[in-house]
Amino acid sequence: MKISNDKIISNEKIANDTYKMVLQPETIPIILPGQFVNIKVDGNMLRRPISVASVDQNTYTIIYKVVGVGTKKLSKLSKGHILDIMGPLGSSFPIHETLDEVLLIGGGVGVPPLYEVAKQYRQQGIEVYVVLGFNDKDAIFYEDDFKQLGCKVYTSTMDGSYGIKGTVMDCIKEHNITCDTVYSCGPLRMLEAVDKNYKKGYLSFEARMACGIGACMGCVCKDKEDKEMYYRICKEGPVFEIGKVEIVC
Amino acid sequence: MKISNDKIISNEKIANDTYKMVLQPETIPIILPGQFVNIKVDGNMLRRPISVASVDQNTYTIIYKVVGVGTKKLSKLSKGHILDIMGPLGSSFPIHETLDEVLLIGGGVGVPPLYEVAKQYRQQGIEVYVVLGFNDKDAIFYEDDFKQLGCKVYTSTMDGSYGIKGTVMDCIKEHNITCDTVYSCGPLRMLEAVDKNYKKGYLSFEARMACGIGACMGCVCKDKEDKEMYYRICKEGPVFEIGKVEIVC
Amino acid sequence: MLEIKLPGLDLKNPIIPASGCFGFGREYAELYDLSVLGGIAIKSATLEKRYGNPTPRIAETPEGMLNAIGLQNPGVDAIIANELPWLATFDTQIIANVAGASEEEYIEVIKRLNANETVKAYELNISCPNVKHGGIGLGTDPTLAANITRMAKEVATKPVYVKLSPNVSNIVEIAKAVEAAGADGLVLINTLLGMRFDLHTGKPILANLTGGLSGPAIKPIALRMVYQVYKEVKIPIIGVGGICSAEDVLEFLYAGASAVQVGMYNFVDPYICPKIIEDLPKTLKKYGIKNIQEAIGRSHHE
Amino acid sequence: MLEIKLPGLDLKNPIIPASGCFGFGREYAELYDLSVLGGIAIKSATLEKRYGNPTPRIAETPEGMLNAIGLQNPGVDAIIANELPWLATFDTQIIANVAGASEEEYIEVIKRLNANETVKAYELNISCPNVKHGGIGLGTDPTLAANITRMAKEVATKPVYVKLSPNVSNIVEIAKAVEAAGADGLVLINTLLGMRFDLHTGKPILANLTGGLSGPAIKPIALRMVYQVYKEVKIPIIGVGGICSAEDVLEFLYAGASAVQVGMYNFVDPYICPKIIEDLPKTLKKYGIKNIQEAIGRSHHE
Ligand SMILES: Cc1cc2nc3c(=O)[nH]c(=O)nc-3n(C[C@H](O)[C@H](O)[C@H](O)COP(=O)(O)OP(=O)(O)OC[C@H]3O[C@@H](n4cnc5c(N)ncnc54)[C@H](O)[C@@H]3O)c2cc1C
Ligand SMILES: Cc1cc2nc3c(=O)[nH]c(=O)nc-3n(C[C@H](O)[C@H](O)[C@H](O)COP(=O)(O)OP(=O)(O)OC[C@H]3O[C@@H](n4cnc5c(N)ncnc54)[C@H](O)[C@@H]3O)c2cc1C
Ligand SMILES: Cc1cc2nc3c(=O)[nH]c(=O)nc-3n(C[C@H](O)[C@H](O)[C@H](O)COP(=O)(O)O)c2cc1C
Ligand SMILES: Cc1cc2nc3c(=O)[nH]c(=O)nc-3n(C[C@H](O)[C@H](O)[C@H](O)COP(=O)(O)O)c2cc1C
Ligand code: FES
Ligand code: FES
Questions:
Q1: Could you tell me where the beta strands, DSSP code E, fall in chain B?
Q2: Distinct helix (H) and strand (E) counts, chain B
Q3: Phi and psi dihedrals of D218, rounded to 5?
Q4: How far away is chain C from the Cα of B104, in angstroms, using its nearest Cα?
Q5: Does the N-terminal or the C-terminal CB of chain D have fewer CB atoms within 10 Å?
Q6: Number of Cβ atoms within 10 Å of the Cβ of D89
Q7: What residues flank ligand 1, with Cβ below 6 Å?
Q8: Full-prediction pTM beyond 0.90?
């Protein structure tokens, strides 16, 4: 973890309310798939946690949705602007070398952190199923990017305006995807469903954060079994083994 | 008065901690000599009142000293930046057509609003004496500008590093300037001295302001005689006839 | 969708400039038609003309400001003679904010305003230091707060709102006392007591030493007090503290306010009130709210 | 020029991360050497391990934030076993912040910490809701505040600082009660109670409904309280509330603080404490101050 002044290389809209920003850090840190950065927005106190979607030679990419004041301000920034960024932070999606196939399940802006997972698995030639869920056709992004990596991509929308109508679970059923190792990130209700239906794999969680580094206890969640045990989503998380965390919707 | 988005045409350092900014408003308002504008600075609540130094075809000029957070931020802005500006505000220095000569007495950043006064009197061919007071040589600005208008310019510095050593009053005495109609702007102690030594003319005051338009009563001063009577420096002022206002240093 | 009826006040929308932040409206009338406003809370009126505190009276703070104006105003008679007839020309509801250095002064001010038809309601400012009680604000003691409310209600011919001070351990206790004493409504909150120091001189920036903190900085405190008080009283609440957007208004409505006042943000953006009024219908729509009534106290429902 | 000696605390500089905003220092130790700090106020310790409140526990506010952590901590025994030995390896002064749901809990926590040599002083957090008194903080009642102070002083083998709640009508009254009960120093202020609402759901953002407001927004209130209390007590004051620069520190010293704590700004800039320590000598020099001592209470002098 460090604080770095990262330069915006590009910042463009890629779907409804959804932006892709490429950043160039002063020195390129090692960023693992699933880790996040914590971005200072001018005029706001708390940093905004955003997952890293992919890492390249000397840049990295984030995908964010405009939901409030902070992400709104981010969306207005142009190329060349310098951002005060803390990171990389948190745990990552472990990449196993002994698997035959993996299933990535992403919902909305939960999709981006899965991209780097797909990339690393595809580099090893492992079969990657990708199931994406969006609200509607206009919200869809990254479908082609996953395809270009050679993943098998299946998309669903809640309103049926594209792909399967329904949730990602509906989509999986519909396409008879049987792969049992999942990597998932998205809305809490989706994670809850994934948690219920799978035994192997990893989930990535969100929480309102203050420090982002494990000091304030702002972002904790409980262990599923041992109610005395807790984890900090910013430190032990955001990625946890499936079944580890108590999910309260 | 109106709120306008004014574009910065230039913003350059002209003396120690002192900057000159040329601004282009959306539509050019009528700005009278001695009036001020109230500038919104990003990240600060209260607007910063700054006098207009001179008015041109479709631009106007302000001169400001960096004394705190707001003026510091202003000094960092570059050409093309848009500022949210309220103005022009307050009373102005009346320009009389029947005078033979006038004496302008300016101290530090009190100098700029006198420039437009000098310009208008010189346009009428009236003799203009200008006495400028600064802390030291490095703080001096606008001496040449007044000279170019054809004014008789006399400068003093508190530390004697340039011109007469001492206050503007020392300078006036030293140069035997006898003109009895004064226009003055500068530190309160200077205004107090001018107020004591002259009977005719105008003084421009400063005060910490909130609304800048006369609504909050934040900036009031008292009448010199009638202690029940008060004036709002942002509305009835900043320019008052000499002898009108009670000066409390 | 924006209308709301409160005791004495028939508001076309819930936006009211706060007392002391709008003078008597003259300066803002040069900028826009005051008839767009739901109402106007005019500057605190005292019996005699008051000059107020020495200057500096203003200091800036992070997302806020301190003021120590000290109730400067021309006195109730001058207000009746010069300001109210002019304000009567606008189609908006005038709330007279009443203050005083003793209980008797409040009562006398109210008596003189009773006959004036322009004033639709009173707002008792019980935050100011009271000479009779050693300079303590009536608003920090439930007994004193109830007492002045009762006295005001006895003479007032218009509804009485009481504007509470937030500088208290227990705002609910004060609110309940004031309600029990007959108040028709509450205005929450006045300013919090604060200070700033001059780095050069080491002295307080304000000549009065302390001043009242207002602005977005205090919004979370105001919201909390509106929420706590709404739970415990039946009379309507006008929310105030840091409001500068239609979203802020919505938060206050959710917390339990029936209308709101906008204070220091008038200084930041003199058009803020008409802007909020314009934004409000879109904002309600965006969050699926059909009308103001539906939003009031929403955080407390089911 | 930065040293300051306070009861039990030999500070090389007046900068101390505030309780709850620095954990037990482990996360920040990865970023810089904790030995640069004047001291560290560790997270409130309770007798048993505590999970705290449900989430969300955090909300943003203008120039501030709300938190409702609810004193999550591993319990005093685990702190003694796991955290204090590690903290002992740094050359800085450790202040143990003590909390509890009853007076007896505070006392038991203090007893267990007494033997530990790393802890140089106690800081009683009397802002938290107390089960024995119907969930009211001990810090809002002068009698209760004095009582817990007296009980703590009876058992404590180290100086006792009392950290006051700002949610009171009269901070001076509480401060004097606590001083009379034997407190060695005061810490001013804890957070102000606030709320935020979710625009979509209409509900409070925090699961706990209300939370503690901290950050630059509350600085003017903290400064005012330090100033008022300094006038009336003889024991030293540690100032806290919104500090994020050397200039802020200077304001607190002028107001009457002898040292300061930095809270939520650690989250905005994790290097803020070392930065302030580095800036402080330049800043003192800029304003003509020779040493910390000269600045303390300067606004009150002559
Ligand atoms: C580990 C992690 C990774 C994330 N990755 C992404 C990503 O890749 N792309 C993306 O679009 N979003 C991501 N989010 C969610 C993102 O942090 C929020 O959408 C964002 O903080 C909202 O900021 P705002 O100012 O626009 O909203 P506002 O509502 O104005 O924010 C107010 C406060 O609430 C916090 N907040 C609001 N919503 C959330 C949320 N869902 N999660 C956490 N904090 C929130 C903000 O950080 C801020 O402190 C991630 C969150 C976490 C915790
Ligand atoms: C009518 C008028 C005309 C002015 N014209 C000029 C000018 O032409 N050039 C120039 O350099 N300065 C001028 N000033 C002074 C200028 O307003 C202040 O220097 C400036 O506001 C300082 O802002 P800051 O953020 O840098 O200082 P800070 O100290 O950080 O400001 C904090 C607050 O105090 C106020 N403040 C601080 N000093 C003053 C002051 N001297 N007068 C009024 N408010 C103050 C600020 O506006 C702000 O609200 C004028 C002031 C007035 C009232
Ligand atoms: C400059 C100024 C003057 C004020 N004068 C009064 C007053 O005379 N009477 C009163 O009841 N409140 C007065 N207030 C308090 C406001 O009406 C309001 O309660 C407070 O500022 C909080 O709202 P805000 O955060 O929107 O400013 C004043 C506030 C300011 C900033
Ligand atoms: C996340 C968080 C947790 C806190 N936890 C505690 C605590 O456990 N004990 C305590 O006495 N104060 C606690 N505080 C209050 C701070 O120590 C400090 O008094 C307050 O935040 C004001 O300072 P600031 O404005 O610099 O943050 C906490 C504050 C925050 C923001
Ligand atoms: S955000 Fe502070 S512990 Fe996770
Ligand atoms: S600044 Fe408000 S009346 Fe002058």
A1: 2-15, 18-24, 36-39, 48-55, 60-65, 82-89, 101-107, 127-134, 152-157, 164-165, 181-185, 200-204, 220-222, 230-232, 239-241
A2: 5, 15
A3: -95, 0
A4: 27
A5: C
A6: 10
A7: A 36, 46, 48-51, 63-65, 67-71, 109, 112, 206-209, 238; D 60
A8: yes
